[in-house]
Amino acid sequence: MDKFEWFKEAKFGMMIHWGLYCLPAGEWKGQRMDYIGEWLQSRYRIPNAEYHPLASAFNPILFNADEWAQLAADAGMKYMVFTAKHHEGFAMYHSRVDKFNIVDATPYCRDVMYELANACARHGIKFGLYYSQDLDWSDPDGGGYTRPHDNCGMSWTNDWDFPDNANKNYTLCYERKIKPQVKEILTQYGDLCLIWFDTPQTISSEQSRELADMVHAYQPNCLVNSRIGNGMGDYRSMGDNEIPDEYMADGLVETPATLNDTWGYKSFDNNWKPAEKVLALKRHLNERGVNYLLNVGPDYLGRIPAPAVDILCKAGQIGG
């Protein structure tokens, strides 16, 4: 089966947003986040000098890769997409490019991405990776600086630590961090089914093409989503939680969606979709030729929240 056929037949996948943002869990200095949890640093304009030390408290001792992979399998999911790096710039794997990563910067000192890749292989789940190739709030030249504060009033770029947007140069960030980290994730974690890029704003056509070519060179059977930017990609990522009514006749399509109202863990977000709703959305999307990529946000101890576990297990039981 080729890389296009498996995707078309998969229909259902698990997305996992996990990073330092799970520690504050949607709260900062007495305020509760009114937006998705992984955007906390931008919402409260937290300096890296305050935000990065969260890594020293990140010790997810209850993380169990096999439990996560088994949950995906029990829910009837066929693939997993894990956040290698989100906009905060923290790598959830052992990056040799930047020590701001889960092995070098935390007391946990384990490469959870390596463990997940192997667990998915044991449980028959295809493994893919999310990587934020444009936005990076830890880098002075991270992208997004050409856009105003139009994301619910938040800045796309880190202009609280690095306010001189006019003199930022994304190419510097791309060459020193983005491109070498993409090479790392493509060459150190076995066979990958897809790379899930995100929020293309500053990246040039040449850079999008270079990343796509890297993926296809190092991982010929790996798909690239449309959020690589500049009209490229092997398949179309729809908008977050976008549920189309029309049938998608052309190409491969996927909707990324949340199980509650956030991607990254928020301790007080209990607006969970029941299993019946999950199955109804899956059926609606699949009937229109769209894969359903459903997200869970693990907490700071490495646990997928109990309500999410219950919902997914029940969905698997009902859905057969």
Could you explain the architecture of this structure?
With 320 residues, the chain is an alpha/beta fold. It contains nine helices and ten strands. It has helices at 3-10, 40-43, 48-51, 65-74, 112-123, 170-187, 205-218, 275-287, 306-319, and strands at 12-16, 27-28, 31-32, 79-85, 126-131, 194-197, 223-224, 236-237, 253-258, 290-296. Strands 7-6-5-4-1-10-9-8 form an eight-stranded parallel β-sheet, sandwiched between helices. Helix 4 runs parallel beside helix 9 (306-319) and helix 6 (170-187) packs parallel to helix 7. The radius of gyration is 18 Å and the shape is globular. 50% of the residues are buried. The model has no long low-confidence stretch (mean pLDDT 97).
Question: Notable features of this structure?
Answer:
single chain, 320 residues, alpha/beta, 9 helices
